[in-house]
Amino acid sequence: MAPREIERPRFGVLNGLSHVALAVWALLIVAPLLWTFLASFKSNAEIFGDPLQLPGALRLDAWGRAWDTAHIGRYMLNTVIVVLFGTAGTMVFGSMAAYVLARYRFPGSRLIYYYFVAGLAFPVFLALGPLFFVVKQVGLLNSHVGLVLVYVAYSLPFTVFFLAAFFRTLPEAVAEAAQIDGASHTRTFFQIMVPMARPGLISITIFNVLGQWNQYLLPLVLLAGDPDKWVLTQGIARISTLAGYEADWPGLFAALSITILPVMIVYIIFQRQIQSGLGSGALK
Amino acid sequence: MERLRRYGFVAGFLAVPLVLYTVFVISPYVQAFQLALTSWNGYSSIVRYVGLDNFGRLFQDEVFWRALRNHGILLLVLPLVTILIALVFAFLLNLGGGTRGAGMKGVWGSNFYRTVFFFPQVLAVAVVGVLFQAVYRPDEDGVINGVLARFGVDPVGWLIEPDLALWSIIAVMVWQAVGFYVVLFSAGMAAIPKDYFEAAALDGANRLRLFFSITLPLLRDTVQVGWIYLGIAAFDGFALIQVLAGDKGEPDGATTILPITIYNTAFSYQKVGYASAMGVALFFLTVTFAVLTLRTTRRERVEL
């Protein structure tokens, strides 16, 4: 009997080189993260010693210091609050606007759609100075409410753009049937269209959560005056500066580990959705 | 009545998003264009219009030119290197396993690699910056220099040497970006029909040939999208450079890019009008970049 398929693994030079290249890149990514994690258990002396050495003992005090003295817990809480309300607001208002612009014809609907999408063309830097004064004028400088509103506003262009395209692909028939049965426009939206648009909503939610969680520039400008309200990214930058003066390097690396770990856990659980969420944004 | 209800619904759904967007996004942009023509300092009640003076000053501003030059390097090198590495990895992960059984496979362990490669993308840039401060430390305690010391190499001032600093920072940006483009290109490669590869492989094409003759031409659109995204990411290099190189783009402005210069001019030197002019210049650069990219990469598309 002749073998139908010859399962011949190839150990060619090219194959070997590919694996080496992939493994080296993986190591380049894992090594700094692992080093940071290990350094949070080291003493100052060990950190300044041989960088390849393991910590001599499992010291947890740096983690405590990062949490208490360096306020990493407060920064994290601030970030969670801001991102929670920021993303929720973005999704509610973004999907409402996108739905109306995608499914209803009225005078000026195209114009309003392009008005929103135009926001994608401008770099945030252009608006930075004036934005500071706008937020100051409405009295929301150094407040989480102000930051949340600004996050929502700046997330709208992409969210509207993405979701409008998504709502257009949904079938007409279901919404029409609901209307004939006497459902109001609002009810049709919340009870019929939103559940149907779930895959698109999930992708763009992930996109917005990541974007707002990692935002550095806007809080830097809008929360500058009140360190108690700072978000994680600002906090880390400050702890990094302070670590230089106070020589508390284990504290810095513990703070970094505390910031990275939750993100890593969420990523490992939701990696498929995160990859497709960020990727679909680019491919639309 | 139904018509009225319909318009009421539309207006109700659009009101809040429109107000938020107009107040916090559009109005600052409009003001920026307006302020670019003034010499406003951010607090005085008198706003003096100076016409195009700010733009004239830009042309003589050494810091602006240095920022522009660095920006140009970033704009060219970041997309080129990232896309190159990502293309090769995406090819290996999706098709590099050769033709075994029915169709093409990735190399062994491709899921693991994809997961690891993508991870830096979800880390905040500020966090990455602090992380690489430790990696790049100029003495033997730095992660890289410590490893180098084992091989008897003297410590390198990754972020201190003016000729080296910008490249070190670009390396971090590439480090963070590659995974995203591996995923992006993988999606593009998945859309290429498998029989193309099988037919070519039957005709005796090796993997290098498959990559250059099939994958690359059919991936053109995706690569183009990637190039524009990276170009815009280059403009967003602010957080990383601010954390890694400090407010002024140390050493001595060697790593400064336009966003850094704008931020300092507006908030450290209180020259809001002048900073706005820089912002307007940056805006036109972005638009030019996007248009040029679309123009030069637009050729006849390969139809599937």
From TrEMBL, chain A:
In terms of superkingdom, the source organism counts as: Bacteria
Where does the record place it? Cell membrane
Entry keyword set: Cell membrane, Membrane, Transmembrane, Transmembrane helix, Transport
List GO BP terms, alphabetically: transmembrane transport
Chief place where the protein resides: membrane
Any stretches that span the bilayer, and where are they?
12-35, 75-101, 113-133, 145-167, 188-210, 249-270
For membrane topology, the record states: Multi-pass membrane protein
Question: In this entry, which stretches build a coiled coil?
Answer: none
Listed under GO cellular component are: plasma membrane
InterPro entries recorded: MetI-like (IPR000515), MetI-like_sf (IPR035906)
Ranges for domain ABC transmembrane type-1 come to 76-270
Task: Tell me the Gene3D superfamilies matching this sequence.
Answer: MetI-like
The family note in this entry says: Belongs to the binding-protein-dependent transport system permease family.
Name-wise, this protein is N-acetylglucosamine ABC transporter membrane protein /chitobiose ABC transporter membrane protein
Native organism is Nonomuraea fuscirosea
From TrEMBL, chain B:
Report the principal subcellular site: membrane
Sequence intervals crossing the membrane: 7-30, 73-95, 116-136, 164-184, 227-245, 272-294
Keyword field contains Aminoacyl-tRNA synthetase: no
Topology class, membrane: Multi-pass membrane protein
Q: Keyword Transmembrane on this protein? A: yes
Cellular compartment(s):
Cell membrane
Please list the GO biological process terms of this entry: transmembrane transport
Q: Which residues form a coiled coil?
A: none
Example GO CC term: the record gives: plasma membrane
Q: Where is the ABC transmembrane type-1 domain?
A: 68-293
Task: Name the family.
Answer: Belongs to the binding-protein-dependent transport system permease family.
PANTHER family, per the entry: ABC TRANSPORTER PERMEASE PROTEIN, DIACETYLCHITOBIOSE UPTAKE SYSTEM PERMEASE PROTEIN NGCF
The protein, known as: N-acetylglucosamine transport system permease protein
Q: Which organism is it from?
A: Nonomuraea fuscirosea
